[in-house]
Design a protein that fits this description.
2 copies of one chain form a homodimer. Chain A is of the alpha/beta class. Chain A has 2 domains: 2-147 and 288-338, Medium-chain alcohol dehydrogenases, catalytic domain (Quinone Oxidoreductase, Chain A, domain 1, Alpha-Beta Complex), CATH 3.90.180; 151-284, Rossmann fold (3-Layer(aba) Sandwich). Helix content of chain A is 30%, strand content 26%. Chains A and B meet through strand 15, strand 16, helix 10 and strand 17 of A and strand 15, strand 16, helix 10 and strand 17 of B. Chains A, B: Residues 7-337 form the Enoyl reductase (ER) domain.
Amino acid sequence: MRAVMMHSPGNVSVVDRDDPIIEQQTDAIIRVAATCICGSDLWPYRGANDVHDAHMGHEYVGYVEEVGSQVSSVRPGQFVVGSFMASDNTCEVCRAGYQSGCVHVQGMGGIGTQAQYARIPLADGTLVACPETPDADLVPSYLAASDVLGTGWFAAVAAQVGPGDTVAVVGDGAVGLMGVLAARELGAERIIAMSRHADRQALAVEFGATDVIETRGDEGVAAITEMTNGLGAHAVIEAVGTQESMMQAIGSTRAGGHIGFVGVSHGQEIPGNRLFRSLVHLHGGPAPVRRFLPDLMDRIASRSIDPGRVFDRTLPLEQAADGYRAMDTREAIKVLLEPFAG
Amino acid sequence: MRAVMMHSPGNVSVVDRDDPIIEQQTDAIIRVAATCICGSDLWPYRGANDVHDAHMGHEYVGYVEEVGSQVSSVRPGQFVVGSFMASDNTCEVCRAGYQSGCVHVQGMGGIGTQAQYARIPLADGTLVACPETPDADLVPSYLAASDVLGTGWFAAVAAQVGPGDTVAVVGDGAVGLMGVLAARELGAERIIAMSRHADRQALAVEFGATDVIETRGDEGVAAITEMTNGLGAHAVIEAVGTQESMMQAIGSTRAGGHIGFVGVSHGQEIPGNRLFRSLVHLHGGPAPVRRFLPDLMDRIASRSIDPGRVFDRTLPLEQAADGYRAMDTREAIKVLLEPFAG
């Protein structure tokens, strides 16, 4: 089969790779209907993480091809969505809703879903099947559920967004935009998107942002403070992962407020005394997408949300390198790859 | 009047000081019935914070002497308990239960309650009166409510301790011990106190600890992990404030679990990637004691809790320097000072 490989920072190509096979009887093999490039894939692309001939990709939707003998919840032919973290969904941590901290968790990044086929470990715990094959126009939305929607949703839930809240969203990447959508769905009254890019601002407004702020850092904090009677937002979504973005989030949250942070942390050192004085709640990490999948898939099926709008470019898998470039230069917000196109 | 002054690290004496007067019409003046030395007073005593001729003390119970014209909720003669943070208790942040983040907050530490009299700002929002003058043996418990009990209680609430939980408590000072008591009252099934001192271990058990661990750091984390089937505790109370104690707390908490941190942060730098991977909830800061006072005072009045047991030494105010020495050397857990003794 064909699969994406990142040879070194900035150097991506599509290569031949053996088709995946059932390795454990709890595995499923899927034919990937759609996959995509994640903001987190840009960290190694930009040299912020080491990378050497790595299989890429952890987001996916597709059709079940084959299942191991111990798989009972999905069967060949079904259209399935799965989290970017494989989990058993039965352990105590999973049952508490933290499938990304499952005692048997396996990151799909190590497997690589930017490919024509993918092996999904712990298929019963990881995959959720659609009742029937979805209309083609819904496929991007289901793909979003696999990571960015689930992650943005988790951020909003972690920030305890509720009816009437003022929510600030730090980060205008796909996850931040999905955070805006989640905040709207969870009843936020005012949603302040922090973005400097016209295309992302427009999408943020489409997803439910009521205000857009172009400043960042201390200036961004001052703007949020002013918009909230000096108190700060009830809830802040941190969807970047840098020191600046985290400090901006802490500074923008009122005493007793909540921060949901989902940007993959890079070089952050959170000053304890600043956190102490802030009296905020801080919760985040790799999103337990599996917790939210059934609900999110229902909302997609009923067309009450349209997260697939976050994909502003679709390419054949063979052109993955162009997709990485477009996301790196911010020409595209998020690139969908079609493994069997062309 | 007589009042404690810390001249420099390690150098405490009792000096003459002007009696406080009503400065704002929202003030009350109280005759201090009992005050005490806080673990946080040891930071400057040990030179970890700058100090020069500072008035000391922020914990207090006493009798109202005089009130400003705008004070309506307490009157002269009443026995009152107040938080170590004065608050209006009416602003939006107070109403959300974060009186320590009140828009008009004033720390009592700057006023100094290790004295015969004290001015309490924002008396209506800060003080809670007992329905009648309490029995003398309950005074230490009411005094504990002013800070250490309220702070330990907040830590347990911030850590979302609930029925059936396994709770670990990092720190065996007065606040940690009050955290043990709070965890028991909130229904925890297993309470693991981390302590190396026999006297504190005994008190922890009296307050409800079911297990005591003497190890700390990585060894302490390993012990908690082993006791919790490899998962970590549901809830962890961090009542120290050092880098080691915070990392111990993060390491001891299961994915999706909660940390309540109330140790005054000193030099902490929390690595974002560690926090991200841990999937824990982190919440803490200066406790909004006022939120809990009515409930805690009811529990004390009905003798269902006995937090006053945390005071293992009582001295006349004039011997405050001995009290500081005893706490610094860990001869005493917490020292109660009687301003009108002897």
